[in-house]
Amino acid sequence: MSSSILSAATSGAASCSQRSLVASRLLVHQTRGAAQKAPAVKVAQSIGGVKKGQKDKWERKIGREYTHRQHDIPVFTRMSEDKLKLPKTDKSPAVLPEQFQPMSTSLNLPLFEPKAITRKNVGTAAGFDLTPTNPAKVFGLPKKMFLEFRILSTPCSVIRDVTVETKNKLEKAKDSSSKDSRIVLTGRAGCGKSFLLHQAVQYAKSEGWIVLYIPRAKTLINSTTTYTYDLRTQTYLQPQASYRIVEKLLTVNSDALSTLTLSAPFTLGGDQDKSKLQVFKEGTKLSEVAQACVKDKSYQSACGTLEVLMRELEGQTKFPVLMAIDDFQSLFHDTAYRDPFFRPIKSHHLSLPRLILEYASGKRNFAKGAFLSALTASDTQYAIPLELQDTLELGHRHPVSPYVQRSETLLQYASGLDAKAGGLQNLKVPEKFSVEEAQALFEVWKDDLALTNSRHDETFMAKYVESDGNPRDFVWKGVLASYAPS
């Protein structure tokens, strides 16, 4: 009986497998037939990698991306009056609201130039010249400043007492070594340190200085560009960031670099392809060396070219040199770059932060010029480290334990910043606007149609008191926060 049950089970299993095999073959046959009857998919024709009929769209996209990469200052254009008019009704035609009607005054500001920076003009707003070689257009700007300049029809700033003081320091520095003119701007968050640094850059450029301006130093350590280890220097090179600095340095200072020459021969090119090596003899213009580096899109020669340019700028005495660094405190933090063991790379192990720290500490100097930097007190990711707080005597917001570890290497760099030992000078920026300075800035925004309230005197006093005179809060939490149709 058991044998008959077993034979029946095996025969049933065999029949089931045969049925499943027949069903699978039928399904494959049906799918093949459906595939053969399906209409052929149309392949889009392309011209140069772009779909036919979309070339104009692609060119517009490339143009927008190129404009975004240029860090240019877009000029604010007002909307047409037709778009701002209230729609017409049965009882009244389309009218332009009072807050959008043209005012009797226009934003006609004096130019920010050296002769305008005097005690007599303190509390006066001055506009910047938007030439193609303007440092703001080439090197870029801090984010908040960039947004303000984008809104205003004419980028401008207010001449303050500390502006005149900074000008006087740069006047003394143009005939002495940069080791004697190393200044750091400190103060409360939003007091105008970045604006003062930018004013110093604009002044130096107008006076014929060679200017190197880095408005966002944290971009050198936040792992946004490539890096590679160099066995010779035992540091991590940053070829892409070095290429950008060489390109911008050439654009802003092309006239000065065309009059300076090499003091020793220099070989330009990568180590992989010896046929592309380019030898520059002694006496070659620095502008030609920089142009050859810019043409090399592989970035292999950027680090070496930047080092040669900086060495030549150190020794020459024809032009004073200004190195201006914003977000300076970020260079004392661990970077977002990682070594082969996925450990954070120290900032002084990267080529560009190390270069800046050497000029800041006095290990490297320009024969004529100055080093000017600004600390960002509102950055929580890259806060002011203890090494800088102790050296610059900034004080501590909270009590610090004596057992908190300090970096010995950063302390060595910071020791060169000690003002008592002839190091970095601490220039404290006033925490508040004076009434005259705040009034000048208020008039700029009022004349540029940023206010919708006609009671200007009451609005000015209210916003000045609400912001406690802090320049950033006065603009962003005061003037611009009041922009709402009544």
Automatic annotation (TrEMBL):
Entry coiled-coil feature ranges: none
Protein name as catalogued: Small ribosomal subunit protein mS29
UniProt record similarity statement: Belongs to the mitochondrion-specific ribosomal protein mS29 family.
Keyword Transit peptide carried by entry: yes
Superkingdom classification of source: Eukaryota
PANTHER family: MITOCHONDRIAL 28S RIBOSOMAL PROTEIN S29, SMALL RIBOSOMAL SUBUNIT PROTEIN MS29
InterPro entries, alphabetized: P-loop_NTPase, Ribosomal_mS29
One GO CC term on file: mitochondrial small ribosomal subunit
GO molecular function: structural constituent of ribosome
One Pfam family here: DAP3
Intracellular or extracellular location(s): Mitochondrion
Alphabetically ordered keywords of this record: Mitochondrion, Ribonucleoprotein, Ribosomal protein, Transit peptide
